[in-house]
Write a structure and sequence with these properties.
The chain is α/β, with parallel strands linked by helices and 261 residues long. It is built from nine helices and nine strands. The structure holds 6-chloroguanine (6GU).
């Protein structure tokens, strides 16, 4: 997969040299190219912003550097990339959307700062390539850079060969599919007793059926406490008799204990 990132802060993306993504880049599995938007400015001060038409606070990113940047980055290729515009006004970036984007051969991320990018940039680009405005959550960041890091990590870890263990990507909390979406329960490793705290004995029992059931109980409990919205979206038919017992029990418990399970 090829990913181009256009930003006024290329240094913001140093983390993409580390760990799994860094290794995937070094091996040629991932081709990530960073571009400084200011290299497409022509004035002495490398200006990328201006005051908003209609008035109001803050500054807006000028269209000309963006137009030239996108023309240059997308030039000379047979393929057409998908353009991602990170913005708090976008449609929600979800695991399902990440799964779809992971199937694309070429993505371009255009990182806006200030109050956003002149809207004609997206309108112009959309005449030549698919464009999607994506938000990573209901809060406001200072710019699209950290949102782009989040999306690039979420997408690229799904690529064959990027994640160490191919199983874990499909098993995660929020892995898509038709099954009930539950967040994952607690995990443990050695030692069996640490600071007086025991690993739940069922995990040491060697009884795989009992382990699976216990894990599902824990996932249901944690989902009911932390993400009741996910359970409301799940059809009743997805729950067995034991699931309903667990949910009835946790719903009868008052207050939320954010850490304890
Ligand atoms: Cl994609 N950008 C900014 N600036 N703020 C956000 C966001 C994106 N997603 C949530 N908040």
């Amino acid at each position: 997969m090829r990913i181009d990132i256009i930003t006024i802060f290329p240094d913001y993306f140093a983390p993409l040299e580390l760990s799994l993504i860094g290794r995937a880049r070094a091996s040629g599995l991932l081709d990530i190219r960073l571009h400084d938007l200011r290299s497409w400015t022509h004035d002495r001060h490398n200006t990328v912003d201006d005051t908003p038409y209609g008035g109001g606070p803050g500054m807006v990113m000028k269209p000309e550097p963006w137009g030239e940047a996108l023309d240059t980055v997308t030039a000379g290729a047979d393929a057409v990339p998908r353009l991602v515009l990170p913005t708090p006004s976008g449609v929600p970036f979800t695991q399902q959307r990440a799964d779809r984007l992971a199937g694309e051969p070429w993505l371009v991320f255009a990182c806006g700062r200030y109050e956003g990018i002149d809207s004609r940039v997206a309108a112009d680009a959309a005449q030549r390539m698919p464009v999607e405005e994506l938000s990573i959550g209901d809060y406001v960041l200072a710019g699209g850079e950290s949102a782009t890091l989040v999306m690039v990590e979420t997408i690229t870890r799904l690529l064959p060969g990027v994640l160490g263990n191919a199983e874990s990507a499909v098993q995660d909390s929020f892995a898509s599919g038709s099954m009930a979406r539950l967040v994952e329960g607690p995990v443990y490793t050695k030692p069996p007793v640490w600071r007086g705290l025991e690993v739940p004995p069922v995990l040491l029992s060697g009884n795989h059926g009992a382990v699976d059931r216990w894990r599902r109980d824990q996932a249901l409990r944690r989902t009911a406490r932390n993400r009741p919205d996910l359970l409301r979206d799940t059809p009743d038919g997805e729950f067995d008799r034991r699931d309903r017992e667990v949910l009835t029990e946790v719903r009868g418990q008052s207050g939320t204990e954010p850490v304890a399970d």
